């Protein structure tokens, strides 16, 4: 874990819930295939240090098929092609920025993670081929604390929170995010099952950059175009 994040979250590692979570994961690894690889569970922290966060995008749990999850929500590494949800994220980027060309073969979102987009899942691990298999084991409490760390660090200038789908919206609501300080953008989830019910056309990426520009200047915005270069 990246040092700033480790300092912000170190108290969590000693709490009973995290000890139970660690024991659960140890048992799981003995008999099951778990995604992402252990070295990638906290990769979100290394790509986006706490002092670099500008946008938080909260997913549910990692992709659960072979060659997909690598620790960033919605992101996949080559040669894996973009899954359906990511294809819809690209479609919305193209709507918000007409010169954006959706990548057909690349699903790696790390280039914008390095700019300050925190691609965080509520649950950081999953059993292969079994969605939500590690939910309610303790990860949600841990990642909620990670978001609290963001809220505390940026209590003066604020950041953007994208809430795609009801689970993300409920998770943010529990944290009591002050919308006078932060921008919370809500819509349907980008999943192919729901994207047509309000994700596509939500304008979130342009709205985020407009808001960030007002508070941080041009240097505080996200260059989404790097994803199609």
TrEMBL record:
Lineage: Eukaryota, Fungi, Dikarya, Basidiomycota, Agaricomycotina
CDD domains: UDG-F1-like
Domain Uracil-DNA glycosylase-like, residue spans: 46-212
Alphabetic keyword roster: DNA damage, DNA repair, Hydrolase, Mitochondrion, Nucleus
Compartment(s) where it occurs, according to its Swiss-Prot or TrEMBL record: Mitochondrion; Nucleus
Pfam families: UDG
Protein name as annotated: Uracil-DNA glycosylase
Domain of life: Eukaryota
GO cellular component terms, A-Z: mitochondrion; nucleus
Reaction catalyzed: Hydrolyzes single-stranded DNA or mismatched double-stranded DNA and polynucleotides, releasing free uracil
GO biological process, one term: base-excision repair, AP site formation via deaminated base removal
Gene Ontology molecular functions: uracil DNA N-glycosylase activity
Function: Excises uracil residues from the DNA which can arise as a result of misincorporation of dUMP residues by DNA polymerase or due to deamination of cytosine.
SUPFAM superfamilies, alphabetized: Uracil-DNA glycosylase-like
EC number: 3.2.2.27
NCBIfam families noted in UniProt: PRK05254.1-1, PRK05254.1-2, PRK05254.1-5, ung
HAMAP family: UDG (MF_00148)
InterPro entries per the UniProt record, alphabetical: UDG_fam1, Ura-DNA_Glyclase_AS, Uracil-DNA_glycosylase-like, Uracil-DNA_glycosylase-like_sf
Enzyme active site: 61
Family per similarity comment: Belongs to the uracil-DNA glycosylase (UDG) superfamily. UNG family.
Chief subcellular location: mitochondrion
